[in-house]
Amino acid sequence: MNTATLAAAGVSRTRRGAPWGRRLLILAAWLVFVLFLLLPLLIVINEALKQGFGTFFAAILEPDAVAALKLTLIAVGISVPLNLVFGVAAAWCVSKYEFRGKSILVTLIDLPFSVSPVIAGLIYVLLFGAQGWFGPWLMDRDIQIVFAVPGIVLATLFVTVPFVARELIPLMQEQGTQEEEAARLLGASGWQMFWHVTLPNIRWGLIYGVVLCTARAMGEFGAVSVVSGHIRGLTNTLPLHVEILYNEYNHVAAFSVASLLLALALLILLLKQWSEARINRLKAAAAQE
Amino acid sequence: MSIRRFALAALAGALISGPVAAAQTLLNVSYDPTRELYVDYNAAFNKHWQAQGHEPVTIQQSHGGSGKQARAVIDGLRADVVTLALAGDIDELHRMGKLIPEDWQTRLPDASTPYTSTIVFLVRKGNPKDIKDWDDLVKPGVEVITPNPKTSGGARWNFLAAWAWAQQQYGSEEKAKEYVAQLYKQVPVLDTGARGSTITFVNNKIGDVLLAWENEAFLALKEEGGDELEIVAPSLSILAEPPVAVVDRNVERKGTRELAEAYLNYLYSEEGQRIAAKHFYRPRNQSVAAEFAQQFPELKLVTIDDDFGGWKQAQPKFFNDGGVFDQIYEAR
Predict the structure, then answer these.
(1) Is the entire prediction scored with pTM above 0.90?
(2) Which domains, and CATH codes, for chain B?
(3) Sequential DSSP letters for A3-57
């Protein structure tokens, strides 16, 4: 038993003297969880299934909904891998090297967190819209960015930039460069060092960052709404499609599609849990050898 | 062209075009309350178009606040046709985007307005706050729901209807301004589009009276079964004229002019007019109008051209930056 668990045991022993306070706290935590998280989710599912599974599946399999799902998956499929690469590269840069303007770079990575999503959408309209900086040039070449799929991908990319990098930077800074230096001294190539030393060290943060990034990319509303053009069956992502259905008095369909989005989110969380457990098992197996 | 550039271009092409559709497509960028109308109309038009020996077309719809939609078209949303809430918004397509000629409104009959509507009040069942006319809206404790005139076309018609009544009632612009200032003080939620306001009022149950397009009010009644709401027609309102136009720059680029023109022309056909009337728009066609006459309350209506000098005067005076709306809303 290490010191941390000893200390924890000690704490729980002293707390046992005042079980009411502890129980109250736990109860409050559960109450908040049930009231503000679980209940709304249950209501969504309840509304979705109000008229039975038939209407539920009809709403989900309706062509516009399928198109919205596809578009959402495209946006996620492009933005998450790009942010993964960018996040690792940026965290690497920031944590392993000293250079001028480093603090500015770190601040810039955080920018999408502080900028309102609406503005994130508008900057792309101002850049690539018909009246924007590159608008006439793009128009001449018949390339459409905003109000089409590329704009939606760009907007999603913008709002999800910080997730992976933000998870990795503190982690990699804490780990320092000794292990990598040792690997190089023992003759590892750059890639070998990355695969066998750096990546295993950061996989936790990486997985967590990717999960957050994916969840946000799927759910993004504001920025995507600005650049979408709201053409149904073409440039509506799932969240936008939910809004449209709701605005058309089509509540059951709106909540059905919303619960589809919810199911996707839960799936991602499960994937995260599964990979965590798997990594833990591998780690334990390695420790036993 | 180098391989890299070719690959980039191919990638961009794949991203932009997506699956290559064999059929022609037409994008109708419209305002909020026309969603249901155009779902029906598109099906009817497609039938008509094919009956004339053409291939079936894919008609895409986009809906939102009228001003916002015009902005999107100016910024590059490739609408073949726009069917917006008011002429002022379509004027912007000429003024800011040079997408259509200045005289666009003369290209189709009835100033390019195939159907009209007006502004009425939607209140809770039994009219608990006893709202009968415009002056009842500023009684203490009455909450009014209307969208933001900056982004919504319907909201601008609402504003002008209120203004027209107040000016007639009190006889001066000063008094009218005081009246609308008080009116907007009693608006708890200012949505960006007409549909947003309807949802706020009907579903979220906020406010005592909704200033609404007549068609939107009837639709809300139909959707909610008429158990919770009723329509009140004020003593005076405005003839709301939502016009339509082919977006020349876009149809020339896409080669869809013939289709786009046929699409708008068919709105004036008897079938098109009947579909509009079924969705509670007032048809222009006399015989169809007679057929549906009892559906609509009789109202005294002012018009934008006779009473406000057209949108070219009304828009800058009331709704542009520093206009009357800004003055009263900032003073809130």
Answers:
(1) no
(2) 3-113+241-267 (3.40.190.10), 116-240+299-330 (3.40.190.10)
(3) HHHHHHHHHHHHHTT-HHHHHHHHHHHHHHIIIIIIHHHHHHHHHHTTTHHHHHH
